[in-house]
Automatic annotation (TrEMBL):
It holds the Pfam family GrpB. It comes from the Eukaryota. InterPro entries: GrpB/CoaE (IPR007344), NT_sf (IPR043519). It comes from Penicillium canariense. This is Uncharacterized protein.
Length: 204
């Protein structure tokens, strides 16, 4: 059944003790914010085609998420993909095909909407993150709402761009991890989401 408004509104709380590590990255992505790259949408389409060939009818939806999905938004050189499957718990049906298509299975978070996380399995000039979800994932819905709001709201796009650059600079000085960088943006992300949710009537 579709995600409820309460589920979509509930903020994500990272709990490392609930993460089941399967493997580690072979190459760590850089926390470097780049100016918008017109190649990002095409890179997503290439990844989408690879995933479609690997999984076929198992797929419910493949969406471009993250900052590279928003035209005009500076971002890390990472293509984020939300991959919704009929059954995210049925790893036997999709892990090997995804790995054969070039994506390395890094971790699972069974208590967070059955999240599974894959990355591109070889070094490139840019990185690819694939987030696997089950049907009607609240988190995939949140990603879509955030993306679509930034696409149509220049003021919040500029606000988020400013915070991203500041967080990246702070992370560089402090030697932060990617999770630390993400946490530095969290307050602003929640602020922007509140406006996006209000626009949809979720806060009424």
């Amino acid at each position: 059944m579709p995600a409820t408004v309460a589920q979509i509104l509930a903020p994500y709380e990272y709990k490392p003790e609930l993460v089941e590590r399967v493997a580690s990255r072979t190459v760590e992505p850089s926390i470097t914010i780049l100016e918008p790259n017109p190649e990002w949408p095409q890179r997503f389409e290439e990844v989408k085609e690879r995933i479609q060939k690997a999984l076929g009818a198992l797929i419910l939806d493949i969406a471009h998420a993250g900052s590279t999905s928003v035209p005009g938004l500076p971002a890390k050189d990472i293509i984020d993909v939300d991959l919704s499957l009929k059954d995210a718990m049925d790893e036997a049906s999709y892990v090997r095909p995804l790995e054969e298509a070039g994506f390395r299975f890094l971790l699972r978070e069974p208590r967070w909407h059955q999240h599974r996380f894959f990355v591109e399995n070889w070094p490139k000039a840019y990185h690819v993150n694939v987030h696997v979800w089950g049907p009607d994932s609240p988190e995939a819905a949140r990603h879509r709402i955030f993306r679509d709001w930034l696409r149509k709201t220049p003021a919040d796009l500029e606000l988020y761009a400013k915070v991203k650059r500041e967080a990246a600079k702070q992370a560089a000085v402090a030697g932060d991890s990617m999770m630390d960088y993400t946490q530095r943006k969290e307050e602003t992300i929640r602020e922007i989401l509140e406006r996006a949710f209000g626009d949809l009537g979720y806060n009424e």
